[in-house]
Amino acid sequence: MSDTPTMNGAESLVHTLIDSGVDVCFTNPGTSEMHFVAALDHIPGMRSVLALQEGVATGAADGYWRMKGKPASTLLHLGPGLANGLSNLHNAKKAGSGVVNIIGEHAASHIELDAPLMSDIEGIARPVSHWVHTSKSAATVGEDAARAVQAAQVAPGQIVSLILPSDTAWNEGGVRHDPLPVPEPEVFAINLLADAAQALLGPESLLLLGGAALTEDNLHIAGQIAAKTGCKLQSEWANARMERGAGRVIVGRVPYPIDIALKVLAPFKRIVLVGARPPIGFFAYPGKPAVLTAPDAEIVPLAPAGTDLTSALEALCVATEAKETAPAHVAKADLPDRPEGPITLDSLATLIGRAIPENGIVVDESVTTGRAFFPATQGAPAHTWLNNCGGSIGYGLPAAIGAAVACPDRKVMALTGDGSAMYTVQALWSMAREDLDITVLIFANRSYQILRGELTNVGVQNPGPRAIDMLSLDRPALNWVEMSHSMGVSASRVTTCTELEDALADGLESTGPRLIEVAL
């Protein structure tokens, strides 16, 4: 522990977080967190980003981890504030993101009175957290913070929730704690290496990738293995981060629609998992299987997400004698021709592929609209692609904030539907306040379009007007240009390919946030 002058618990917390490398806080504080706020005011080194709703703060912390590779903190107000952020903490947990939540709590003397905001904060936190702890005194807050940061960095990344009673924050006796070592990832299943190498021989074999297996270098290795063995490459449907574009190995995703996914995976008799789980459907459907692979497919779980995936791929490359092999499936710089006329799903994909900037970051929450984006964007300049891994909507705009804060020198494109964006529309205000370089595309089909398809998938035929009305966003229609302007973000609405291409060029050539409402 370091020698420091006398400080309160909140000050020891801030000092320890900064010393441990946590220097960004996405915050929506309340009364019980005021001493943390005061500490941030006079202790240099922590960037505070204000969110108008806690789901924006937690989603931004998710996006920050994915691009920075280290945790940010959130500051949340008691149990209800944490509850507002649960949806995007669920998404962050499924993505393997490391997040340090600091959650205020009443002082011990006030807990006994059952005040209006009293709740079971630990109980609320546990379902979306890997590590939950309540500080007991000002003297232990610094150590608790160091342990929290360490826990957040357990591979592939963990959600931690440190609960800070207000008296532990304001009481003197805080002790600044030195950083704790970052845990090493677990070793992959070396005993399965020979089986995995044998299983990948031939076109009826699949190397299924996820997590950190989708970095540029690891995809290169996977491409070498595919070239040598003849196996196919796929990734999970939703990936926390994938490096894509010209010069990089192309990896398709297991499709979301269950009938298509079953057809795509049916030919594979052997599947090796590196950073991925065995493919399952998002939902249960009457008369359809939940497991997407062929019933007799052999699954070799070589390297779960929390293991050293780079070492696993390097070892697999040696075992398949692929180290001197040029990788297969490398994308060429090949942009499709510019489309004309009204915007369709195909022309939309083409225009996005043409617009992605070199070293750009694409945050994708397009759900139904974006299912065809990957083929049209594989030849775009090299870029990073982030997906919603947990399926809880409202992830895209907050994650774009986190990505932009983590990488201020890179352009960010956020792709989202109008229904999804309404869950965390307050994110636009934070983008404007922080002057973040984000171009937002809102796909305005005025419906929860994915649910219309799901209505058919679960066996509902010929739905009536009341059912359709519950899945529609047209009474009244949302005006994204006006909403965006009200929160300080310049915006326009486009209906043709020419208008969209011009708007994308304007947004990506300028700095600061910009919103484009794409009428579909």
Automatic annotation (TrEMBL):
It comes from the Bacteria. One of its GO terms (biological process) is small molecule metabolic process. Gene3D superfamilies: 3.40.50.970. It is an enzyme of class 2 (transferase). Pfam families: TPP_enzyme_C (PF02775), TPP_enzyme_N (PF02776). Residues 381-518 form the Thiamine pyrophosphate enzyme TPP-binding domain. Signal peptide: none annotated. The keyword Transferase applies. Its EC number is 2.2.1.6. Residues 7-112 form the Thiamine pyrophosphate enzyme N-terminal TPP-binding domain. SUPFAM superfamilies: Thiamin diphosphate-binding fold (THDP-binding). Belongs to the TPP enzyme family. This is Acetolactate synthase-1/2/3 large subunit.
